[in-house]
Design goal:
It is a single chain. Helix content is about 85%, strand content about 0%. By secondary structure, it is mainly α. The model has no long low-confidence stretch (mean pLDDT about 90).
Length: about 180
């Protein structure tokens, strides 16, 4: 089975496709064609709303790869960047005011451009756990500064710890994969 970028359909797409088709068939059978087409229309509108955001996020990721050399990204966010690289990735994740349609393509582009799994994990988890934009706009008005401050303080070490864990796990996977390749 081919992976992403090799012209094939990966396993995650297949799972989503099977679940989507199964869900659509279930709605059609249980609720009838009227409800099915109503949901299909609403989902089509959502899809059309999301596509430009995904394209913009992918474009941002591609532009970063063009504007910053692979060597610079590898030195700053690669496996050899240590705690400093994880700190930079964490800070970027905290500060980026974007949604998942920008953050995930950007993270994937950084991986392709020389960042390691640890930096990507720190970036995404910092965005999820410590995102400043979301905290200011959504959390503080609902929960108050005391609660949000405490939640962020407790969550603060997590992106770095997850970055180190991702580096270790990915390093183990690479070592196992290369050992299997030598044994064949």
């Amino acid at each position: 089975m081919a992976g992403p970028g090799r012209g094939g359909i990966d396993w995650s797409f297949r799972i989503v496709a099977v679940l989507s088709i199964g869900g659509a068939a279930t709605v059609f059978i249980r609720e009838g064609s009227h409800v099915f087409f109503e949901v299909l229309f609403e989902d089509t509108l959502l899809f059309l709303e999301i596509v430009p955001k995904v394209l913009a996020g992918t474009l941002i990721g591609a532009l970063i790869r063009l504007l910053v050399s692979k060597e610079t990204i590898a030195a700053t966010l690669g496996a050899g960047s240590g705690l400093r690289g994880l700190g930079i990735a964490t800070l970027a994740g905290i500060l980026i005011p974007a949604g998942p349609f920008t953050v995930f393509p950007l993270s994937a582009a950084l991986l392709v451009a020389g960042a390691d799994a640890g930096a990507a994990a720190a970036f995404v988890s910092a965005w999820l756990l410590l995102g400043l934009n979301r905290a200011i706009v959504w959390e503080v008005p609902f929960f108050g500064l005391d609660f949000v401050g405490l939640r962020m303080l407790v969550s603060a070490p997590m992106p770095i710890l997850l970055g180190f864990a991702a580096r270790a796990a990915f390093g183990r996977l690479v070592a196992e994969h290369s050992a299997e390749g030598r044994a064949e």
